[in-house]
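Z., the sequence and structure:
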Amino acid sequence: MQYDIVEISHSNKHFHNKSIETFEVFGRLDVNFQNSIWSYNEIIFDKPYTKVYSGEKVDLEDYIASSRKTIFFAISEGEVIGQIVIRSNWNRFCFIDDVSIRRIARHKGVASALLNKAQAWAIKNNFEGFMLETQDINLAACKLYMSNGFELGSVDTMLYSNFDTKDEKALIWYKRFIV
């Protein structure tokens, strides 16, 4: 699959959130923290189900004008196939708000390419690494982040407690840049 990765601009801002589609929830990352070491087990579900996260509505003009946040799109044949939304966080990490890949482009390196592009931008802008949050039931995302050098930093069991997703755990991942 051929594609280009481009930064948000006035001419392409309409691509924002166009790559958000359902994904299959096929398992959970079971996490244990003992003696200051994280360990993981993948629990595969007997009955997978689909889920979708609605993309946040953000001030796109602010993303275009700011030097502390941006969005990158993966474009193939004039269509958006993926996006990554990143911004400055108070702790000198570049926070990844969203990575979304259309089904037709999944498992083809698009997400890793977007992460690499975002990392180059973050290093250029003097961030010390990445930080992001995903759910323990988004096993595909967890595997993506682990395969791209992210490490688990914490688990939040209360983040979703006021929603239908109250049984999900928030996993906070980090990747330090070596500069």
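The two ends are 31 Å apart (CA to CA). The chain has a mean pLDDT of 96.

Let me know what you think.
H.
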